[in-house]
Amino acid sequence: MQIESSPVYSDETLYRSFETFNIEQHANGMSGWQVCYDQVSAGQFNGHITELNLKEIQLVRDRSNRALVKTGKAWDGSLSFNMPYNPLPDNFYCDGNVSSSDSILIAKGNCLPELLTPENLDVISITVNKESILSIAKKQNIEFYLDNNSDGHYITKLKSNTDLLNDLRIIISESHINTLIQQKTIQNRVKDTLFQHLIDIIDSEQAQYLGPVARKKVVDKARDYVLSNLDTPPSIIELCNVIGTSRRKLQYCFQNTLGINPVTFLRLVRLNAAHRDLLNSNSNSCVQDVATKWGFLHLSRFASEYKTLFKELPSETLKKNI
Predict the structure, then answer these.
(1) Which of 210, 239, 271 is a domain's end point?
(2) Domain at 233, CATH number
(3) What is the pLDDT of residues 170-196, one digit of tens each?
(4) What is an example of a GO molecular function annotated in this UniProt entry (predicted)?
């Protein structure tokens, strides 16, 4: 069967969500991909594609009700991470090897293996610019050996993908898409979050042991950088890049020095920044604008975390100054 071209992939921000009613329509649904699907199980085909493109990163949620054989490739210069979005009803097969719900397929865009997928599949593909993620890995002193793999792909087991899936569910929730598409601050934080999740998947090594003095040096360097950039608190990935360490090692150092992880530390910095803005607000200010400014996508979660820390809702802080 001939592989037809899908919509061209570009770095422009794009969100699409649509139902498909035959395998050709479904195969041609992802921007920049050239794939061929052959239906294996009997029955009328029905699928759904949700696609979010941000600069250098593409998210695709792919749902289909029939067992399929999939072949093809992603866009040029890409690296693709593919995993179940919801637990698989059955195993799937990758180049003849059995894979399960806790597996993730990592592949160069032009080296996607043949897949035999089960009925009622629900998977997520995070496809990124290969050079971008290799550059981040290099800054964090993480080695990536895919180029040494003659197949150009491999499958690995995830110890836990709960945090990644929780973030994905927030990111591609339709109730948040408009905010994401319109706000550069949110876009950058989402990209940083996803890139760091992927770097964590690549970084399979355990954190090297560091003594108390060395751990404190790492924490002090991170804290000094954060406190010197209070107007634009860095993301975890930026912090790791600046310090030249992996998130695993950074977390190990924070946990053993301050008793909290770096994600919590950065969230506290952003919550306090939002608190200051609300305290110094004027009559034209609103909670959502302040939350968005400081990179909080999920407004109700922001309000909950804010109340836990300051014992009042953001709206209550705002009213004090109006």
Answers:
(1) 210
(2) 1.10.10.60
(3) 887 766 676 667 778 778 888 888 998
(4) sequence-specific DNA binding
Within a domain: 1:
no
The rounded distance, in Å, linking the Cα atoms of 109 and 136 is: 18
Residue (of 202, 109, 206, 196) closest to 156 by Cα position: 202
Helix, strand, or coil (residue 51): strand
Q: Which domain holds residue 268?
A: 214-320
Dist CA 185 CA 294 (whole Å): 8
d(CA 75, CA 8): 8
Question: pTM of the full predicted structure?
Answer: 0.77
How many structural domains compose the chain?
2
On whether the CB atoms of residues 50 and 14 are closer than 8 A, the answer is no
Helix (H/G/I), strand (E/B), else coil: 321: coil
Q: 266, 322, 317, 321: which is closest to 296 by C-alpha?
A: 266
Cβ proximity of 237 and 276 under 8 Å? no
Task: Please check whether residues 204 and 58 belong to one and the same domain.
Answer: yes
